[in-house]
Specification:
By secondary structure, the protein is mainly α. The protein has helices at about 25-45, 50-65, 75-85, 90-105, 115-125, 125-135, 140-160, 160-165, 175-180, 195-215, 220, 225-245, 260-275; strands at about 280, 285.
C-alpha cells in the first residue's frame, strides 16, 4: 500500500469545478492548494510529529506575516493572504484547517462521536464556509453547510479506513463505538470486514444520512445559481457513495465512483439545483 498525494482532480467530490463562476476559480484553487499542502505535511510518514507541527506553524506564521519568508515553496501563501484581505475573508477559514492538521500530526484519538464531529468542524467545515462566504451567501447557510462537510469528511474516513490505520497509524472511528461493536484496531488491517466492523460501519452510515438530511435545505436557501448546482451534484454524489459504502467492503478494495456515477450525479444534481424552489432568508434565518 503506497502513500498518496492527492490533487484536486483525484478528490471524490468537486473542488472548484466548472460550475463555479470563472472569476472565483483561481481563489478556490489557491485555497485548495493551502489545504492540500497542510494535509500532505500531516500525512507525511517520513516526518516526525515535531517537524510536522513546525511546518504547519510556519504556514500560519507566513499567513499572519509573523516571519519574513524569502523562499519559493510557500510563497503562494503570501498571495492567498492578499486575496483573502481583498475579498474580506476571515483567516480563520485557513487557520481552522491547521488546527485539524495539528491533531492529525499528533495522531489524536477520538473517544466519542461528538469528538469526531468536532474534529470535522475544523478539518472540513471551513471549506464549506469559505465557498459560502466567497459567494456572499447568508451566514444562516453555514450550519447546514457544516453538516454537509462533516458528512463528506466521515465518508472519506470510511473509504480510507485501512489506509489510515496501516500507513498513517491513525483511526478516526470513535473509541466508544469500537468498544460497543467489539471492533479492534487490528480488525481495520484485515483483508475483509468482520461482521462486527460491518455493523459498526452501518451505524456510522446512519449518522451520516442524518447529517445529509440536515444539509439538504442548502438547495433552497443558497442564492447563487451556480453554487446551488454544485451543491446538487455533491449531494447526489454523497447519496451514491453512501449506498456503495453500505453494500461494499471498505477493506477488500477501494470504493470509488464510476464514470456512470459521475454522469448520473451531475445530471440529477444540476437539475435539483436549478429546480428547487428558493426560500427567503433574513439575517435571523428562514422567513
Amino acid at each position: 500500500m503506497k502513500t498518496r498525494h492527492k490533487q484536486a482532480k483525484d478528490e471524490n467530490f468537486p473542488v472548484g469545478s466548472r460550475l463555479i463562476d470563472k472569476k472565483l476559480r483561481p481563489l478556490v484553487a489557491e485555497y485548495y492548494r493551502f489545504a492540500r499542502h497542510a494535509d500532505d505535511i500531516a500525512d507525511n510518514p517520513k516526518l516526525n510529529m515535531k517537524e510536522k507541527l513546525r511546518q504547519l506553524s510556519e504556514m500560519e506564521d507566513i499567513l499572519y506575516e509573523r516571519i519574513d519568508y524569502k523562499g519559493h515553496k510557500l510563497a503562494f501563501i503570501k498571495k492567498l493572504r492578499r486575496d483573502f484581505i481583498s475579498e474580506n475573508l476571515s483567516f480563520s477559514l485557513l487557520t481552522d484547517l491547521l488546527t485539524a492538521f495539528r491533531q492529525d500530526a499528533r495522531n489524536y484519538k477520538y473517544e466519542t462521536w461528538g469528538q469526531l464531529v468536532e474534529y470535522c468542524r475544523w478539518s472540513a467545515a471551513p471549506v464549506g464556509r469559505f465557498m459560502l462566504a466567497l459567494h456572499n451567501e447568508n451566514p444562516s447557510t453555514y450550519l447546514p453547510g457544516t453538516s454537509l462537510c462533516v458528512a463528506l469528511q466521515i465518508q472519506n474516513h470510511l473509504q480510507d479506513l485501512k489506509y489510515d490505520a496501516k500507513l498513517l497509524k491513525r483511526v478516526y472511528i470513535p473509541v466508544d463505538m469500537m468498544k460497543k461493536y467489539g471492533v479492534k484496531t487490528s480488525d481495520l488491517l484485515k483483508d475483509r470486514e468482520t461482521p462486527q466492523l460491518n455493523r459498526l460501519k452501518k451505524d456510522i452510515l446512519q449518522k451520516v444520512q442524518g447529517l445529509i438530511k440536515e444539509a439538504d435545505i442548502l438547495l433552497s436557501i443558497v442564492k447563487s445559481r451556480r453554487l446551488r448546482m454544485e451543491l446538487g451534484v455533491i449531494l447526489s454524489l454523497t447519496v451514491i457513495m453512501l449506498k456503495k459504502l453500505e453494500k461494499g467492503d471498505v477493506l477488500a478494495k477501494e470504493i470509488k465512483f464510476s464514470k456512470l456515477d459521475w454522469f448520473k450525479a451531475t445530471l440529477q444534481g444540476m437539475g435539483r439545483g436549478l429546480l428547487t424552489k428558493r426560500k427567503t432568508l433574513t439575517t435571523k434565518g428562514l422567513e
